[in-house]
Design brief:
DNA-binding; homodimer; mainly alpha; 10 helices
DNA sequence: TGACAATGAATGAACGTTCATTCATTGTGG
DNA sequence: CCACAATGAATGAACGTTCATTCATTGTCA
């Protein structure tokens, strides 16, 4: 091949996936037609089939991309200076980067798909286990968690944290459309902080909180 | 048909909704055809249209039914003798009554549908607000929560509890099929108890937990 | 350099299938 | 016999996928 070589093919794939994310979030996997995606991407239907075997493959690729994005979030959380800051990053990952309700709706759909597509389920499980392991380690090493963890082990704490994060993400899809990304972010932060204070705040401070 | 005749109309509706729940949980709203539902119910396609205007109406009726089921769960939770028991009821509602992963998958799908169908979103919001109000009141009146609430208000505690419950429900759809309803129930209970001990256990006991 | 051959990205009409919905027909209890 | 429950073949729209075709770009040889 003799194009501006290295990024032309990946660009097309990426362009298609970008369009697919918008469509999937707006209409869901199975209500999105290949025509919807091609229109959103500004290309023809046929071209999608040059880069993806079929619609399933587009969904799988989206799930893969989600995996990569989650591990980036995890990296950022690992490099935060405090445990609270890590939690804040984990809880707001989905309402700052892109336009607002897109990501949440996509992730809820992904779980919904996972419940009946074993391949997607494996992938989501894998993402979750990696992220859980990362956060468990984060907690093990955090000085804040040493003497204030309410008698729970790091892994138990991580499980609670992820449950709350998933639950808040689910709530996010119910938010009225008027709510801005910033307002949403603020709500997520509130809950993250409350959870932090429940799990990690020194007991001495609890009475005045 | 050979049933008691007087309630034949409600029976048919109910029969159709029962079948729809099974299909929706197995395949999702939009991958379930009207033929799937009619086959599961053991009736003809056309008959569904005698009792429901269209497929959307079936989905709406399912959401309505979900609303009623949630308020029953809430009633049971209200009549529990301890706050911990209430939490246990709220957390295991979906893995005891019917065969296991059916309800969880349906609820995740319901949220997914809510993200793009304002009518469903309103209904789910309404369910959630009612339930939140109920649990908030529950906490306000519970003696356990009087001096041990980690500085959080009843409504803030309720929000955390519901986030965890939703998050665990989401996790439930990832469980491998081999896992039995009892095992699932046990996992949910563990988390409910951990959350309870974080939020409500007297601080004096925390060190030894 | 210029003429021509080869490439393969891109198109979109067409195909076979599936689906929600309709309705003419049949069965049934009173 | 009538009113109504129930059927399922028929309909047409929408879908995922295919493929013959176009055409800008690149490679080649005189």
């Amino acid at each position: 091949m003799s194009q501006p070589p290295t990024d032309s093919v990946p660009d097309r794939r990426c362009q298609i996936l970008d369009a697919a994310l918008v469509c999937f979030a707006k209409r869901g996997f199975h209500q999105t037609s290949m025509h919807d995606i091609s229109a959103e991407a500004g290309i023809s239907v046929g071209l999608i089939y040059r880069y993806f075997e079929n619609k399933e493959a587009v969904i799988s690729a989206m799930a893969d991309r989600h995996k990569r994005e989650i591990s980036e979030v995890l990296q950022r959380a690992k490099h935060a200076r405090t445990l609270l800051e890590s939690l804040e990053i984990l809880f707001t990952a989905h309402c700052c980067e892109e336009e607002s309700p897109v990501v949440s709706a996509f992730v809820v759909d992904l779980y919904s798909e996972a419940s009946r597509n074993p391949q997607v389920a494996d992938l989501v499980r894998d993402v979750l286990e990696t992220a859980m392991a990362g956060v468990t380690e984060l907690i093990s090493k955090a000085p804040e968690a040493q003497n204030t963890a309410r008698g729970l082990s790091p892994i138990e704490l991580a499980e609670l944290i992820f449950a709350v994060a998933r639950g808040m993400l689910m709530l996010d899809v119910l938010r009225p459309v008027e709510m801005t990304a910033t307002e949403r972010r603020e709500r997520q932060l509130q809950v993250a902080r409350r959870l932090w204070s429940c799990l990690f705040k020194p007991e001495a401070e609890l009475a005045y909180a």
